[in-house]
Amino acid sequence: MMAAIFEKRRYRDFDWLLAILATGIVLFGTWQIYNAQPTANYWQKQLIGLAIALVTMLVVALTDYRKVVQYAPAFYIFGLLLLVIVLIPGIGLKINGQRCWIGVPGVGQFQPSEFVKIPTILMLARQFGKPRQGPLSWKEIAIGIAILALPVGLILLEPDAGSALTYFPLLAVVLFLSAIRLWIVIAALVLGLASVPTAYTIGVKTGFIKSYQQERIKVILDPENADRRGYGYHTWQSILTVGRGRVFGTWGETEYSQSRLKFLPEPHTDFIFAVTAETTGFVGSISLLIAYVLLLSRLFSNARRAPDRTGMLVIMGLIGGLAFQIFINIGMVLGLLPVIGVPLPLMSAGVSSVLATFIGIGFAISVRMRRFVN
Amino acid sequence: MKFFEDESQNLRARFATIQIIVFALLAVLAGRLYFLQIVRGSYYAERAENQRIRLLPIPAPRGVIMDRYGRVIVDSRPIYNIILSREDVKGKDLSALVEPLSQGLNLDPEFLRERFEQMRTMPAFESVRIKENATPADIAWVEAHKLEFPELRVEQQPQRQYPPDGLLAHVLGYVGEISPKQLEDPKYKEKGYKPGDIIGQEGVEAVYDEYLRGRDGYRRVVVDSRGHIQAVLEEVPPQPGQDMVLTIDLDLQRAAEEQLKKMPTKRGVIIVMDPNNGEILAMASYPTFDPNLFSQRITTREGRAEYAALLRDPQHPLYNRAIRGRYPPGSTWKIPMAIAGLEQGAITVEHSRLLCGGGILIGNKFTRCMGNHGMPDLRTAIMKSCDGYFYRLGLKMGIDGIMRMVDELELNKRTGVDLPHELRSWTPSPEFKARFNPRDPQWKDIDTVYASFGQVYEFVTPLALLRAIAAIGVGGKLYTPHLLKEFRPVREMGPFPARPGKVYEQPAPKIVPIRPEHHKLVVDGMWAVVNDAGTAARIRMPGFDIAGKTGTAQVVSLGKDVGKNKDHSWFVSYAPAYKPEIAALALIENVGFGASYAAPAVRAIYDVYYEKTRGAPAPQLAMNR
Q1: How many structural domains are present in chain B?
Q2: Staple B325 to which of A167, B280, B321, B583, CB 3.0 to 4.6 Å?
Q3: Do B394 and B516 reside in the same domain of the chain?
Q4: By the CB < 8 Å criterion, does B19 face chain A?
């Protein structure tokens, strides 16, 4: 049956480059997961996750995205439902004080906040995908904000600030490409930049920003003198791990790596890039960055060739989400940004994250396959 | 794509803007990577190395201590210690550990608190021993609480083992951890001691610490973030310390301690010495203590209580009476007096008779003799211990003569024995009287009389007295008493160079001028004390001529000398009388006459010595007088 669907023309138009790049990064990541935790079974799980993700991607790619976008509200509501369910004690599993997992008997557990990004993008694309006439109205902006606010609000209740943060670029990109007035963009930027220190000061004074969060920010500004044993520990150890890789990495001697000696926390998930930098050195980590650049470039090219605005916005939303998450995660690993629990797309161990990313890539392929069709 | 060409929305430019922002952010990451891995790579690599590599010392065993025949007295055996790693408790609230650790490991909470305080004030502590000699139960407790207290680890370490019954305790001394105060002392600083080092704190352990201590080895290990050892990269085994051979003869030492234990008060000193070279064959001070308390139990609750009890004990068991006890010498003082009287010309061999008179009247004060000996010669005066004779001899010599005698025999100096804290004896002089009796500071004839019978103006350490008597015995050679015979060499090991052996170097003895005829006359008197009808005739050994002198030192004035305040009993001697091989002294506190306790105690030592050297049981007197 697969072969029947996969007829010759589609075989030719299928975006092999994108699929191979994404798969390659996941395989490379699996190797790093193995380096980080060779005794645990995370790397095996990751391979199983990749297999599931590839099949899912294929199904999504071969489906016409326009039909899916039509039903976007249904998916969106279903996603919101999942986000509500995860909050129910007994169904939602509490790990490290956050209730962001749903356990499925016999399958394992998954993280709805990873998946709901997709219906959110589809919903935004549907809303802003119609041919535009003139600049964005306030009402349209308000609708966009509302679409985003519902899932973000629910995720903040888990509470998972890191995941919630990754939703904002979806809206930002879509609004920016929907002829939002430039002065609003500039005003938002200026306001945003100015409000960061102000909000920080107010947050500290009102106690909204906890002292450990303050420490995590201090360590970025001056890692050498920060509390390297307390809240600065993660950042400092991550910097050491990355630096230790030097030009060519440590390769063979993974036995006494930072992660094996348990100096580096969460080496297979949030800090997988540090493991990569340690084992493969500058050569390996810069190669990974280039792979991301190639992947994003391909997505940009697909977006530019999209048959309609909707397709373009789906891909651009995806790009916004991916690029933002890559920057936040690696920036954290390299000590540029405070510690925020955001996985590195395609690299970090976690089936939910890989699957969600591959669904997004499936849409990008679907859009590309329909570039000549009207 | 029509929608894309829509210039009215600036879509192309906006699209490009997003592209630029995305790639610019990735470029920032690439720049940061370049900085961390290439510019600063080696720095961070080193920092990472430092946190994973640790040098763990392997404590070296100290040298073994043996008696003169190579019989082991003190040894080290491996034990397990519980260590608290400082690295892992940085920033932790240590006071929260006191309760669970003292409960789990049976430790004195006060001790733990002190330990933590030390850690806080002394950054040099890498790790701290919190329990020595951990039992299997303690080790199991640490293993079981690994998650709760990851800062604890178990380490093997050699521990000093002393004889369990306090044998030779005052000579051996003990080891203990270097104290914060000692660490600041330049004397220790120069030698490179570090916190946590176990060093000799008393006795020969302290005096010869440099030789006895080994050179610590180390292990270079990889640890994980909790300080648990993952791999050993390099191991340098320690070089043990030099084995020490003492001059002590364990047979004589045991005999001496048995004698003291048998005495009614169980308090006293027995010293046995080779008069020909100053080698100390036995040195027993009673009551004694268990040095294992300091090397093994001092960190436990019970051990600390035991130590406090020792300090409070009115009998001062920690005190080495041989070098720190100052006792009036009583009649033993007559031997130096006799030699000096002859040498100074107060009496001569031909004309040595002086009146006894049952005592002497100076002004309106009569000082009595224990008997009435008529007009004895020197031999008889020594044999019968005639006080009246020596009162008059003292007056003839004068206080200057007595002071010269003290100088010649170095009775006013430390003997120079290789033990710490030796005290100097007090000897008669006008200055001493002025200090001792400020209400009547003038030196009078009566004081000279007092100074000549060893009761008022002299307080001597047993070792100083034995040294002087032994010197008289060998005709005037004053040797330095000592305990070290030799240190055995240690061969080269790894980075540690070989350590050469060392034999005790006896400084040239001080020559005390004694003319042979004077020497003979005094020895005749001392021989007669035991072998004629003298004060110690009951200890005579036919075929082994003991020369000696009894002494009875008054503790309080006559009439009150009963019970607790009984006199001290002395006996100083050497044998054989005319060719001395061995000198022995006994002082038994508060038991009464010298002849009744001290002399038989010394005799028991000679019995053992005789059997050892003559290969036959010691001759007994047919009839015990």
Answers
A1: 3
A2: B321
A3: yes
A4: yes
